[in-house]
Amino acid sequence: NVHLPGNYYTQDTTYPVVFVLDANLYGDIYNVIEDKYAEVGLLPNVILVNVGYKDFPAMDSLRNRDYTYPVAIPEYEMTVSGGADKFLSFFRDQLVNHIDSNYRTDKHNRVLMGHSLGGYFALYSLYKGLEAQQSLFSGYIAASPSTHYNHYYIINALEKISSRNKNLKAYISTGGLEDNPSDTSAMPAARVFASLRSSLQQKSSIQLKMDTFSDL
Fold this sequence. Notes:
By secondary structure, this protein is of the alpha/beta class. It contains six helices and seven strands.
């Protein structure tokens, strides 16, 4: 689903594009927020590309396949997983080209936005973008990303990265109530954030903003 800004047909200009994951759940909400906030000047006018599945049952299973890498460890009991590289290729080889060919897009201002496993995919895409000479996206938003996946695979991968691409932006958020004191194997959110900050800001010099919302 592609949601165009209110002034799209009256303004001869290009627009940033925000690709929204889990659109079955979030697409309609973000469309309304974008329209209302842009109307009063609190958000820029952007094209929202809502990426979802044919229905909620499909979303519930296929997001595990599409948003994760590598294949899940057995304890997660995911029937399909580990397909993030293929899903990222879908963006690179099909979706982005389709959007750029059919709409007036700012090809230097694309943002990928995800929550939970979608946030994990956003971080994984950022990791791949840092490795590349040129990233498909210029910005990444990861809300409560599932950084614990496969024993913190993405945290470890980012810690080891030698970045070749520094012209990127990232926003990462978490909730203050997400820590589980009874899970001794879980890394505290503060430690996760410290690792991400070190890997992304100090090593890669990307523009990074991080927030913890204490009561969520």
